[in-house]
Amino acid sequence: MTEPDPAFRAGVAFVDGGYVPIADARIPMLDLGFLRSDACQDTISIWKGRFFRLEDHLARFERSFTRLRMTCPYDRDRLRAIATECVRKTGLRDAYLQLIMTRGRMPIGSRDIRLAQNRFQAFCIPYVWIANADVRARGLDLHVSAIRRVPEQSVDPTVKHYHWLDFEMGLLEAYDRGADSVLLTDLEGNVAEGPGFNVFAVRDGELLTPQSGVLDGMTRTTVFDLAGELNMRARLAPLSPAALRSAQEVFICSTAGGIMPVRKVDDATIGDGAPGPTTRRLEQLYWRKREQGWLGTPIAYD
Ligand code: PLP
pTM for this structure? Predict the structure, then answer.
């Protein structure tokens, strides 16, 4: 096969209709995506040269920008082709691909966002893990913050958006406490989600994950699929911080790392402090099936 251009090995971006090395990719300063977080995205993982759930991700991306009343300059076929070309150019077998719509720029002097030309851009970089291998092996320590996740009454959580100041402040709070990451709560004080992940508790043999106010994560959907295969019961339910702390097992799930065990929630050790059997089974099945190309779309690198 042909070797990828070395300039693209660290990553590639698709901007203004062309491909550039990731370090050179720029967004215009007056783009409302930058100035107002008026943007949405979808992130797709590539493992062993295959996209995971590509069509599901493209459908969720289209849903996100349609709900934001944006128009993408490209149709589904062209988006698929750009996504493929981004990965192909890097030559990466294990990669992380983000598709992004921004509101774009208004004519100078105007405040009418309807006049903004919506923009599409994408990038592909080496695969991203929410936690490194050591932390994944022992389980993450999570801090539950009193910071409320931006409520669904304000911003539709099923739009994969960049309203992340709540997460960023929560993360800094978590780091101050020596934790690896954070979970934010909803207006009722129940657990919502973390920066880039959904959360599950295993209680009385059942998998429980927050019911509302969260992104319908692709990996969360995948956990339901795997649970079905393993004859495990799984459902959406309100999850209080106390219910999480007293669960037999807790895990998080994300495109950036799959299924990852949790060791502690605040000061409470989960189970005996080692990743539990349910989490391990799900995690192993997830990676085994991904290695085998489950729900995968192969990328033609040549
Ligand atoms: N929740 C939020 C806020 C996210 O940003 C993400 C992913 O980035 C997730 C959950 C997990 O979603 P997925 O499994 O589709 O990566």
Answer: 0.97
